[in-house]
Automatic annotation (TrEMBL):
Signal peptide: none annotated. Thyroid hormone-binding protein. Probably transports thyroxine from the bloodstream to the brain. This is Transthyretin. Pfam families: Transthyretin. Keywords: Gamma-carboxyglutamic acid, Hormone, Hydrolase, Purine metabolism, Secreted, Thyroid hormone. Coiled coil: none annotated. The keyword Kinase does not apply. It is found in: Secreted.
Length: 101
C-alpha cells in the first residue's frame, strides 16, 4: 500500500550541525471561531530526515489561517544545550486549491 500524500509538509534542518532536525516536536493548529481561538489539529515529531509527513490528510485542509509551532527549546534541551528561542511559529493564511498556503 502506497502512503497517502499530505497537502501540508515541513522540513526542518539543524543549521548548527548541518543535518536534519530529527525528533523535533511540532504542533499544527488552525484559527477557529472567527479568529478567536487556535485549535490543535496534530502534534507530531520530525523523522530522521527532518520531515513530518502526514500532518493533514487529503480533504482536511480548508481555507483559513494555520500555524506550525516548533518546540525548539525542547529540541536543544535534549541535546544538552540552551535555546535562544523557546519556540518558533510559522503562520500562513489561505488555501489555493491544492497549492501552497
Amino acid at each position: 500500500m502506497e502512503p497517502v500524500s499530505s497537502p501540508l509538509t515541513t522540513h526542518v534542518l539543524d543549521t548548527a550541525s548541518g543535518l536534519p532536525a530529527q525528533g523535533l516536536c511540532l504542533c499544527l493548529s488552525r484559527l477557529e471561531n472567527h479568529g478567536q481561538q487556535w485549535t490543535e489539529l496534530r502534534r507530531s515529531y520530525t523523522n530522521p530526515d527532518g520531515r513530518c509527513p502526514g500532518l493533514l490528510l487529503p480533504g482536511q485542509m480548508k481555507a483559513g489561517t494555520y500555524k506550525l509551532t516548533f518546540d525548539t527549546e525542547g529540541y536543544w534541551k535534549k541535546r544538552g544545550q540552551d535555546s535562544f528561542y523557546p519556540y518558533v511559529e510559522v503562520r500562513a493564511t489561505g488555501w489555493h486549491g491544492g497549492g501552497v498556503l
